[in-house]
Design brief:
This protein is of the alpha/beta class and 441 residues long. It has helices spanning 32-42, 55-67, 119-124, 188-204, 215-226, 247-259, 329-343, 408-420, 426-432, 435-438; strands at 2-4, 19-20, 27-28, 43-51, 74-77, 128-130, 135-139, 144-147, 152-160, 164-166, 182-184, 208-211, 231-235, 262-266, 269-274, 281-286, 289-294, 297-300, 304-306, 316-318, 356-361, 364-370, 376-382, 387-394, 397-404. The chain contains 10 helices and 25 strands. The longest helix is centred in the middle third of the chain and has 17 residues, at 188-204.
């Protein structure tokens, strides 16, 4: 989401309204100096402020440092309790049993090839990082914002990088959606609660249900299986990850998941959750009728909503579509860099963006570059052996490439093809397979 114009958290000290006198039995009102001290503590000013502590915030800090940043010129305000990190890890290695990923291991900007930006890194660079600080109001005209603790912060430039939040089933008044044991995965606090419930289910022989058939469901289901927790994916679409997979590609993963003990219900919808305080069963509606699934924990992944309410009516929201799929990780990094460069007067030209998607489940690893919008598909490789791919063709050009279990050289070649979009036809691509890409290196 682009904001035009570019709109471009701290421990709060509480002072008693009384000042203790030299004599211990007497209290008196604050002196003028004390009033000035309280006022100074309540208002802060920074040349640059970033609202949000996700991927983008970390890359904003990285680019400011690269462009030259004086001490105290940048403040990052986040309602999370930890500094910016590579969020995709939460549904992957963070949920693993032995050797699970933990901070500070995946702080930004390690995912983009940069150094690990720990809390110490921000302090060394003179960046103020306000954790567990919620912004309740932004006034773009006066260039000020108010926090939940009552502090006011003013700025010259504001980068709004508040990201998104999960779509909650309670928004649709789904019965039982307020029960304990329903999980949404967005931050480390969510992931920590999920890890606890996974371990409890493993110890008690419990089962899990995953609502949704996308990234969250597939990645979490693989980690549940690795932890020995049986699970069922309730997928409303005709096949998994239907925004990106073809039916043939989805069939491979569905069979692979079944071999790992993951049950998949397609054309299915979770309509209610039952239990006494904590979820015990999920009511699922299918074309064959209604059934109930035992579940000691549920993971919901049915989409996200952008956190734009603080700027409602103050700035123009301009949607920035990227092909048929709205990718977030790479785009978040690049938009963050672009915003800082614009502030520094470096450039406002569109950046070179190639959509990129990936996932790691079980011992599999797939990547996709480009777009699949309005495209024909040429599959290739050995699906039985788990090493295959697909080219997506539109108007006689290759516009996207999907690979499973590819070598680094093959990945580089596929990325190059997706970027250059060479002319090709289905028969040629199906015949040549990956060599069509590697021969162009």
């Amino acid at each position: 989401m682009l904001l035009r114009p570019i709109p471009i958290q701290s421990a709060v000290h509480r002072f008693d309204t009384r000042v203790f006198n030299a004599r211990p039995w007497e209290w008196r009102k604050p002196v003028a100096a004390s009033r000035r001290l309280v006022a100074a503590m309540a208002t802060e000013h920074y040349a640059n402020v970033t609202i949000g502590g996700g991927n983008a915030a970390g890359y904003v800090a990285k680019e400011f440092v690269a462009q030259g940043l004086g001490r105290g010129e940048l403040a990052i305000i986040s309602d999370e309790g930890v500094c910016a990190y590579e969020r995709p890890a939460l549904s992957k290695a963070y949920l693993a049993g032995e050797g699970a990923a933990r901070l500070p291991g995946f702080h930004t900007s390690v995912g983009g090839g940069g150094e690990r930006q720990t809390p110490e890194w921000y302090a060394e660079k003179g960046i103020t990082y306000k954790l567990a600080t919620k912004v309740e109001k932004v006034d773009a005209k006066t260039k000020s914002l108010s926090t939940a603790s009552g502090n006011t912060i003013t700025y010259d430039k504001l980068i709004y990088a508040a990201g998104s939040r999960p779509v909650y089933l309670s928004e649709f008044k789904v019965p039982g959606s307020d029960l304990q044991g329903l999980h949404y995965l967005r931050n480390t606090a969510d992931a920590d609660k999920l890890v606890q419930d996974i371990q409890a289910a493993k110890a008690s022989g419990g089962k899990a249900v995953l609502v949704g058939g996308g990234y969250i469901a597939m990645e979490v289901a693989s980690q549940l299986a690795n932890n020995g927790v049986p699970s069922t994916i309730v997928c409303p679409e005709p096949y998994l990850l239907s925004r990106l997979f073809t039916p043939k590609i989805a069939e491979f993963y569905e069979k692979f998941y079944a071999s790992k003990g993951v049950h998949i219900m397609k054309h299915a919808k979770a309509t209610a959750f039952e239990g006494s305080g904590k979820v015990q069963q999920v009511v699922v509606s299918t074309k064959d009728g209604e059934q109930k699934l035992d579940a000691s924990l549920v993971i919901v992944g049915v989409g996200a909503r952008p956190n734009v309410e603080l700027l409602d009516g103050q700035v123009e929201m301009v949607p920035k579509p990227v092909g048929g799929i709205k990718e977030h990780v790479t785009n978040a990094r690049q938009t963050a860099t672009q915003a800082v460069r614009a502030i520094k007067g470096k450039t406002t030209e569109p950046y070179d963006y190639l959509p990129f998607f990936y996932s790691r489940v079980f011992n599999l690893s797939w990547q996709f570059w480009g777009t699949n919008e309005n495209a024909e598909v040429a599959h290739f490789g050995d699906f039985a052996a788990g090493k295959f791919g697909a080219y997506f063709i539109s108007n006689g050009k290759v516009v996207g490439v999907f690979l499973e279990s590819a070598s680094p050289e093959e990945q580089s070649a596929a990325q190059k093809v997706a970027r250059e979009q060479p002319a090709a036809n289905l028969a040629e691509l199906e015949s040549k397979g990956i060599s069509f890409a590697t021969s162009r290196m």
